[in-house]
Amino acid sequence: MKFEPIxxxxxxxxxxxxxxxxxxxxxxxxxxxxxxxxIVLEYAEKINYHPNPIALSLKERRTYSIxxxxxxxxxxxxxxxxxxxxxxxYDAGYHVIITQSHELHKQEKLNVEHLASRSVDGLxxxxxxxxxxxxxxxxxxxxxxxxxxxDRTTDEIDTHKVIANNFQGAFDATEYLIKNGKTKxxxxxxxxxxxxxRQRLDGYKAALTKNGLVVNEQYIKYCEQGGQDYNEILxxxxxxxxxxNPPEAIFIASDKLTTGCLKALRTFSRKVVDGLxxxxxxxSNLVELFEFSLTTVRQPAFEMGQIATKLLIQLIESKRPxxxxxxxxxxxxxxxxxxxxxxxA
Length: 345
Description:
The chain is of the alpha/beta class. The protein contains 13 helices and 12 strands.
């Protein structure tokens, strides 16, 4: 049996009204009496009537849908961002379509192009580790697709952006390690061209310089896959800990890398990791299950998602062309959560 959705014609036939009267009543038209509106709305609620989204999109040239592109939904940071996105979007009458890039530029591009072909009203995106070419996004934006970047952004497209204070978060974590007596501090980070990589690396270096420590480039390890490849993380950690001059602490630049690094440390003997301190960006509570204690830099992920969505809806509903809008970058403060840094038995 084929499902047949209820239409305005069905309501009109049941109530003895014309379809135009029912349509105006559902829209709250001023030319319809309050009594007629009441009858129509009560009946519509009784039969669980919902407007046909396809018909609405054809009439208004809008789909009331927002596309979202993240590297991985299972990542605690991104799942919290998505919760923030949905908390605003659904209340504003928008559906949310979520896609994953898995840190791959090709997958990201396919996702965005598919969303655009579905005629989403706007796009929220955090760039993949592999993405170094945003020309396809620039083209869509120039054609009028509203885009808001969050977390991982680009300077090549003039639009709203919502980020954490990556520099300060990295600076605070690194300086905390220094104040706890660590002078040889390594840095495990993402692909070098990502905005968060540059900003957090700058904060790490600034803390070392402020405290009279030399930046040792041998201590800086890039993971091009952004934590998607555990073997890449394991190799970087092994290279650090088995070197002639191993670090006394490691500062880690992202959620996925932090959990991967903690897992990698379990493969080393107590002798190798004894006394090693760890600090890292993570919004995951799973790190508490590892035997290694961690000082964490937490980002306001839920708030980031909320703000990015509000800014996107403003762009979608604005009567002005995108070229005439004054765009802004919202920077949210991170939180340093202190824990016992010593490796536990």
